[in-house]
Design brief:
Blueprint: E1 5-14, E2 17-27, E3 32-36, H1 43-50, E4 58-63, E5 66-67, H2 73-79, E6 81-84, H3 96-102, H4 110-123, H5 125-129, H6 140-152, E7 158-162, H7 170-185, E8 189-194, H8 197-203, E9 206-211, E10 214-220, H9 221-226, H10 228-234
Parallel strand pairs: 3-8, 3-9, 6-7, 7-8
Antiparallel strand pairs: 1-2, 1-4, 4-5, 9-10
Helix pairs in contact: 3-6
Bound molecules: adenosine-5'-triphosphate.
Adenosine-5'-triphosphate binds near residues 40 and 43.
């Protein structure tokens, strides 16, 4: 089967800093794959490269059989990739509802948009409760839910999730994990980037271990959970 997304020998630089070095990976439709790695390994940079926020120095990115690493972020989004960035970049002075609607800015069918909005408010009851509140007044976990909800409002074929558990209390981390699992169960293809390797590997089908811009290990998530190197370096065992 053709993968939904494929990276071939991708390099990404910030000036002199070589943040991503020869990364190849492929994601099958309806899978959830994770990229784990410590702070600064280059995980966010890979997602930014996929969504067209930064150019690749070289290599190729293919999505739905089309090469996308030479087109704008706007067009990548239109093709069906939604990037949920780290740090919940919401509009704090806008309401929950307004933030969600912004996620649908590329869509035109009002009826479908309203149906999806309704589905998202069902999935996140707390967002319905707070629909008219300013996003900036939500707790960290609620803001993370809103960021994910906004990402879903574009009705993507591929969802990129950057560190959704970052800075959240353990109970909220478990809640976010449950939500990601549910979204995946409804056949969404997801790439998840996480420092919390245990959580990420438990949620996913396949994992990639990234160290200083290079993939050093990859495999089925269950195998990685049992891998001695992963245990020692990432699972604190
Ligand atoms: P984190 O969890 O901290 O976001 P990460 O694995 O996502 O880590 P990246 O943010 O992708 O790592 O960063 C990879 C490397 O690129 C790091 O060395 C970082 O310092 C560098 N880097 C990231 N953004 C920039 C930038 N805008 N300009 C210059 N260097 C950058």
């Amino acid at each position: 089967m053709m993968p939904l997304l494929e990276l071939k020998d991708v390099n990404i630089h910030y000036g002199q800093v070589k943040a991503v070095k020869g990364v190849s990976l492929s994601i099958q439709e309806k899978e959830i794959d994770v990229i784990i790695g410590s702070n600064g390994a280059g995980k966010s940079t890979i997602l930014r490269g996929i969504s067209g926020l930064i150019p690749c120095a070289n290599g190729e990115i293919w999505f739905k059989n089309r090469r996308i690493n030479n087109i704008s972020g706007h067009r990548v989004a239109k093709m069906g990739i939604s990037h949920v960035p780290e740090g919940r970049r919401l509009f704090p002075k806008m309401t929950v509802l307004e933030n969600l609607k912004i996620g649908a800015y590329l869509r035109v069918n009002k009826r479908e948009i309203n149906n999806d909005l309704e589905r998202i408010l069902e999935r996140f009851p707390v967002l319905r409760e707070r629909r008219d509140q300013h996003a900036g007044t939500l707790s960290g976990g609620e803001q993370q839910m809103l960021t994910i909800g906004r990402g879903l409002m574009s009705k993507p074929d591929l969802l990129l999730l950057d560190e959704p558990s970052l800075g959240l209390a353990p109970l909220m981390v478990a809640e976010i994990a449950r939500i990601i699992q549910e979204i995946h169960n409804q056949e969404m293809t997801i790439i998840l980037v996480e420092q919390n390797a245990r959580l990420a590997l438990r949620l996913s089908n396949r994992g990639y271990v990234l160290e200083t811009g290079k993939i050093v290990l990859e495999g089925g998530s269950e195998d990685l959970l049992g891998n001695e190197y992963v245990k020692k370096s990432y699972l604190g065992a």
